[in-house]
Automatic annotation (TrEMBL):
Pfam families: Isochorismatase. Its EC number is 3.-.-.-, 3.3.2.1. GO terms for molecular function: isochorismatase activity. PANTHER family: ISOCHORISMATASE HYDROLASE, PEROXYUREIDOACRYLATE/UREIDOACRYLATE AMIDOHYDROLASE-RELATED. InterPro entries: Isochorismatase-like_dom (IPR000868), Isochorismatase-like_hydrls (IPR050272), Isochorismatase-like_sf (IPR036380). Keywords: Hydrolase. Residues 7-179 form the Isochorismatase-like domain. This is Isochorismatase. SUPFAM superfamilies: Isochorismatase-like hydrolases.
Amino acid sequence: MELQTNAALILIDQQQGILHPRLGRRNNPQAEERIAELLAYWRQTARPLIHVQHLSRSEQSVFWPGQSGVEFQQRFMPQGAEAVIQKQVPDAFCATTLEADLRKAGIGQLVIVGVATNNSVESTARTAGNLGFDTWVVEDACYTFDKADFFGQARSAEEVHAMSLGNLHGEYATVIDSRQILQRDL
């Protein structure tokens, strides 16, 4: 696997609201550090960056427009001409210009990071794979939260994360870790 010179890094929902304690216990406490390292690398190598911002339709959401939770976290603030895609559902391709923007720019490879692994990351990666993009999900630069399964069984964030990555790997995306990119061991 080779990282293309125009591979786009897609940062999903790195907003202030995702840090709200009411979301519960999470996994990958180092995820933001990995995201920041990848962001710095993309900026250093002048590769395309796309910041995805969730604007919820629910007033109870941490991403409800008009309050601080919807704003980007300071360290993940878009700079200069970096693209921002605003979405209202988990999938960053749904009812946005993301696919058209990528095709117009000739970008065929996507590297996805952010939150939540089993929600916006997984739904965006599934669509990307279905649309034919060479899609990579960086497992140590994503995280999620504890969640009950359909049958009411409590699942740890680690279990939810692992299952989501298992759903994606080999079918919709390639799951890798940040070292494989930053050390260029591909």
